């Protein structure tokens, strides 16, 4: 197989999976990554939940009903899927494979359970965990909002502990102490190491 090496930064066409606990800043890092490298393919998940105000079908999610979602599972159309709070979420396989075939680096942002499923479906996928600078920093992020029931916050913290404990299952770790730096580190992992000495 030949690699023409054309396109933005001659990125390697490899699937990267980004996971990390709630409150670690995944959406902020991904928004910054889009600015730094618009050529990256960002997977759009399918979900059975109803759209929230401002959400656009096919942009934020592919909104489908439960019957359609089950048909997609039965047809093997998902790289991974899971159910949370009564709604189903899944990563469509075909668009990811098409992006990779076109030579684009592809990125999925999913939780731990989904990352494990992707590893089964695509063993050469690169798993990256986004970590907080410290546990204390994450606790402040999750409790500092002050708008949620303490029981919900405690449950989030328990899930975060479980997710951080799975760090050894991941290929790489990016620490989000600064959004721009974290996005640059993630991009470097996706498209290959930068030339040293810069």
TrEMBL record:
Keyword Nucleotide-binding belongs to the record: yes
Broad class of where this protein is predominantly found: cytoplasm
UniProt-annotated binding residues for ATP: 20-27
The keyword Oxidoreductase is annotated on this UniProt entry: no
Stretches for region Disordered: 1-24
Subcellular location: Cytoplasm
Reactions catalysed according to its record: GMP + ATP = GDP + ADP
Entry keywords, A to Z: ATP-binding, Cytoplasm, Kinase, Nucleotide-binding, Transferase
EC code: 2.7.4.8
Annotated ranges, domain Guanylate kinase-like: 13-191
Span of the signal peptide: none
GO cellular component: cytosol
Enzyme class: transferase
Gene3D superfamilies: Guanylate Kinase phosphate binding domain, P-loop containing nucleotide triphosphate hydrolases
Recorded GO MF terms: ATP binding; GMP kinase activity
InterPro entries membership: GK/Ca_channel_bsu (IPR008145), Guanylate_kin-like_dom (IPR008144), Guanylate_kinase (IPR017665), Guanylate_kinase_CS (IPR020590), P-loop_NTPase (IPR027417)
Family: Belongs to the guanylate kinase family.
Matching NCBIfam families: guanyl_kin
The protein's role, per its UniProt record: Essential for recycling GMP and indirectly, cGMP.
Record-given protein name: Guanylate kinase
Natural source organism: Lentzea atacamensis
